[in-house]
Design goal:
Shape: rod-shaped
Radius of gyration: 49 Å
Structural class: mainly alpha
Number of strands: 0
Order of helices and strands: HH
Distance between the termini: 75 Å
Largest sheet: none
Number of helices: 2
Strand content: under 5%
Helix content: over 70%
Length: 195
């Protein structure tokens, strides 16, 4: 088996980091869409509060400025006009709020479509990548097992050859020993016979 290279680990870490970034990218876009809409809603709300506050303060100034029946009549006449302005402002604010909501809805739907598309693409790419890696790992495993089998076969052949040659040597050695033993026995027997 091949030894792992530190560069391989670094490449795998960088790839993992890139894959993680791609995985979270759609959700980052979705969060940015929510943040953008929250900023617009906040700005709208602050402007609306400021607008109504200014109208209320102006009305209070007019009340504070009433010092005669004529100014009271003018104030009373302006109240109908002010109510008309407030109602127009409220209608415009309601329409603007509806547009903001619709804009947010459209943007979220677009981002969710992108998320779903990217998630599907990423899932298919990851599945293909995993299948490729499994195939490669299977091929490497088969190659390694084949090498190990060849090495084991070579070792067995060498051991068998060594055992066969040792058996032949033992047979030769045993035969020689028997011959020597036989010679020694004949000499003993010869001596006994001489007696």
């Amino acid at each position: 088996m091949s030894q792992p290279n530190p560069q391989d680990f670094l490449n795998q870490f960088n790839q993992f980091s890139g894959d993680t970034q791609k995985m979270f990218e759609p959700w980052t876009k979705l969060n940015q869409a929510f943040l953008k809409n929250a900023e617009m809603m906040t700005e709208f709300s602050l402007n609306t509060i400021k607008s109504y506050s200014e109208m209320g303060l102006e009305n209070m100034r007019q009340v504070a400025g009433i010092d005669s029946p004529e100014t009271a009549k003018d104030f009373s006449d302006k109240q109908a006009e002010m109510l008309n302005v407030i109602s127009q402002q409220m209608l415009a604010d309601a329409q603007r709020m509806s547009e903001l909501g619709s804009s947010m809805h459209d943007e979220v739907i677009k981002v969710m479509g992108d998320v779903q598309g990217q998630t599907t693409e990423q899932m298919q790419a990851n599945m293909q990548k995993t299948a490729d890696q499994a195939t490669k790992a299977g091929q490497e495993y088969a190659a390694n097992m084949s090498k190990m089998a060849e090495q084991a076969s070579g070792t067995v052949k060498a051991a068998t050859k060594t055992n066969t040659s040792n058996t032949t040597t033992e047979t030769n050695t045993t035969g020689t020993t028997n011959t020597k033993t036989g010679t020694a026995g004949a000499s003993s027997t010869g001596k006994s016979t001489n007696r």
